[in-house]
Amino acid sequence: MDLKTFTKLPFYIKLACVLFSLFALGYLVIIAKEILSPLIFSCLFSILLLPVASFFERRLRLPRSAASMTAVVLLLSMIGLLIFIIGSQIADLAKDWPKFQAQISQSMWQFRGWVQDTFHVTRGKQLRVVNSAADKMMSPDPSVVGATVLSLSSILLFLVFTFIYTFFFLLYRRLIMKFLVSVFLPENKTIVHEVIEQVQHIIRKYIMGLLIEMSIIAAGVSVAFSFMGVQYAILLGLLTGLFNIIPYVGIFSALVVSAVVTLGTSPDSTKVIWVMVTLVVTHLIDSNVLLPIVVGSKVKINALITVLGVVIGEMIWGIPGMFLSIPSIAVLKIIFDRVESLQPWGIILGDDEKEQNKLAKGKRVKNKKVVIEDVEPSV
Q1: What does each C-alpha distance from 255 to 102, 175, 239, 268, 379 come to in angstroms?
Q2: What percent of the chain is modeled with pLDDT above 90?
Q3: How many CB atoms lie within 10 A of CB 135?
Q4: Cα separations in angstroms, 191 against 60, 306, 339, 343
Q5: What does the H/E/C string look like for the chain?
Q6: Cβ neighbours around 191 below 10 Å, total
Q7: What sign results for the dihedral spanned by CA atoms 33, 37, 38, 40?
Q8: How many CA atoms lie within 13 A of 242 on its CB side?
Q9: Beta bridge partners of 301
């Protein structure tokens, strides 16, 4: 059945076909998470490293395999340096763990007193509820221990396969390009090339902008917390920068972590409030200044689709899905804008009102022309 025949079918048949296709695609994506997730991360990393590998290959005259491996090793070195810095900060926090626990206990005692005075719930009842929850969380269940070990091993395998796939994507990039072009009809080669080039440009610009934004946020929060006298300011700044990659959800997670660490390391409870205010102001500056300037690109996604994408990504793939949701939507937006039958979906994803009005107006004009041509002239 061709596209023209499908468009003439009744609405309920077309709706059933679309829903069945979406459910089938969603099911396949969920069960193929272990394969697709590292592949997509590898694709993003390979797009980011493509200029580096090309530089080593053309300027330094390295073989393609050596240039690809060198680019991957550089990326691993940068990630390893970041993990080392965060690990050293966490090690310092672990040394002060008894003091941290004592401070948290004192703060919780004061909080329970406030709850007792306000809601008339005794400290003993509150303590029994807290201890019951803590016993369930800290119980030495063998299944919990096994699940933790399995999770750590799966993360390690995920990282190993991600960088292996990244190397192969860089090594066989021309072969992959020929395959993508040969899949479509010869008359569509120009559009395919345009879409692939645009996707590479947008993804590279997005990732680079995201890294710059992450660095600015991490440095700004670290300096602000250091000026306020917050302990482990560098650790909290780095975590805020990393969590900020996840839209809207990340800054809330960073706020909770920073508030807990500050509460456990400082006897001054007002400092916790200033930490929270600092992160809220940082989020406002990031959303209204940094994000449009640094991360802004030709493909703009509205806030509603961004939040929905993050939520759906978390439901499908968990934390990796939250990271991959925005680049995936950006790629879909590029494809939708260049395929005539899918342009309405590109309109709903976009955030540039003028550009979307042009697309919608062009769509209406084309439909009007089609209707006029289909009407037979009266004799």
Answers
A1: 22, 46, 10, 17, 74
A2: 11
A3: 9
A4: 33, 27, 9, 14
A5: CCHHHHHCCCHHHHHHHHHHHHHHHHHHHHHCHHHHHHHHHHHHHHHHHHHHHHHHHHCCCCCHHHHHHHHHHHHHHHHHHHHHHHHHHHHHHHHCHHHHHHHHHHHHHHHHHHHHHHHCCCHHHHHHHHHHHHHHHHCCCHHHHHHHHHHHHHHHHHHHHHHHHHHHHHHCHHHHHHHHHHHCCHHHHHHHHHHHHHHHHHHHHHHHHHHHHHHHHHHHHHHHHHHHCCCCHHHHHHHHHHHCCCCCHHHHHHHHHHHHHHHHHCCCCHHHHHHHHHHHHHHHHHHHHHHHHHHCCCCCECHHHHHHHHHHHHHHHCHHHHHHHHHHHHHHHHHHHHCHHHHHHHHHHECCHHHHHHHHHHHHHHHHHHHHHHCCCCC
A6: 14
A7: positive
A8: 13
A9: 350
Paired residues of 350 in beta bridges:
301
- Residue that is written with structure tokens 């039958």 in the block: 341
Instruction: Write out the two tokens for 379.
Output: 């004799």
Which amino acid does the sequence have at 166? Answer: T
Asked if 236 and 258 count as a contact pair (C-beta separation under 8 A), the reply is yes
CA distance 270 to 21: 54
What distance in Å separates the CA atoms of residue 361 and residue 29, rounded to the nearest whole number? 35
Q: Per the structure block, which two tokens stand in for 120?
A: 């008339």
Residue 353 pLDDT: 58
Q: Is the pTM of this model over 0.85?
A: no
| C-alpha–C-alpha distance, residues 309 and 326, integer Å | 7
Token pair of 311 as six digits: 């939520």
Mean pLDDT confidence for 109-123: 71
- Return the amino acid letter for 88: S
- Taking Cα atoms as reference points, which of 195, 165, 193 lies closest to residue 178? 193
Q: What percent of the chain has pLDDT over 70?
A: 78
Task: Give 141-170 pLDDT, tens digit per residue.
Answer: 444 434 434 455 677 788 888 899 999 999
Q: Is the pLDDT of residue 377 over 60?
A: no
Residues 203, 48: Cα–Cα separation, whole Å: 8
Please, what's the largest Cα pairwise distance for the chain?
95
Question: Cα-flanking dihedrals φ and ψ of residue 131, to 5°?
Answer: -65, -35
Of 248, 252, 274, 279, the C-alpha closest to 263 is 274
| Among 224, 238, 260, 242, CA closest to 319 | 242
